[in-house]
Amino acid sequence: MKKKRGRKPLDVIGNRYGRLVILKDVEDSKPRKVVARCDCGTKRDYLLAALRSGNTKSCGCLSKELASQAKHKRNGGRKATDLTGQKFGKLTAIKRVENSPQNAVARWLCRCECGVEKIMYASNLTEGATTSCGCSKGGGSTERWTKNQDKDIIRLKNSGMNNEEISKLVNRSLAALAKRFSSLRKLKGEKRCQAKDCQKNFIPLISSAKYCTDQCRWQENKRKKYEERVDKGLCKQCGGKKGDTDITYCKKCQDYFKKRWVDRNSDLPT
Q: In three state form, how does the secondary structure of the chain look?
């Protein structure tokens, strides 16, 4: 009786798949398993088929790094400021902890003067919205914010005004204002202004907002209109046809600019 010829097992010892290097086979394993070491030092058993197909590339550390990078990108690409040892009211920042899974906001473990340790949002600490663990009530007006007031302070903030100036205009304390901005950011989120010359983070009044202010929207539309006219070989100013393609403006606009220059400089001594 003839013996069946089996396929010789594939020699994969020493092979690298992503961050994993195969060390040895797991005995009597079906489907075939191997022991592999990750670049971070972790040793575990893995299905060989999962390694060869590319479905498994690390012990799990790669997924965590990619998730952290995605959170950093959603947060505007900003690096978290080191708050270790800094004091915010009754709170002292001890160490950085894992970001919030809901909105990827940086968080810090803080110790209050009363001895309680609590995790706080970094933005709440730096903006003065949180000054204790809750053992003392914050100052400021207890009057509720109306929708019109929310719109007003968002417009003022997006225009570049700081919290101190806004608090004087709306007659609210800095702590109350900072706390309201923190609530609005959680409620409405933050966006990056789409204007090429701005690109700062802002609180949108409506979900479809692309620009922090009307001025940014106007400037960006003007820039796009100018670029479109230049690409089509038209006058940059009025969009009319021009005779020479090497010049930027048509003859009518050139005459207008010359006349305006002469009028402005007519009083200068010759």
A: CCCCCCCCCCCCCCCEECCEEEEEECCCCCCCEEEEEECCCCEEEEEHHHHHHCCCCCCCHHHHHHHHHHHHHHCCCCCCCCCCCCEECCEEEEEEECCCCCCCCCEEEEEECCCCEEEEEHHHHHCCCCCCCCCCCCCCCCCCCCHHHHHHHHHHHHCCCCHHHHHHHHCCCHHHHHHHHHHHHHHHCCEECCCCCCCCEECCCCCCCCCCCHHHHHHHHHHHHHHHHHHCCCCCCCCCCCCCCCCCCCHHHHHHHHHHHHHHHCCCCC
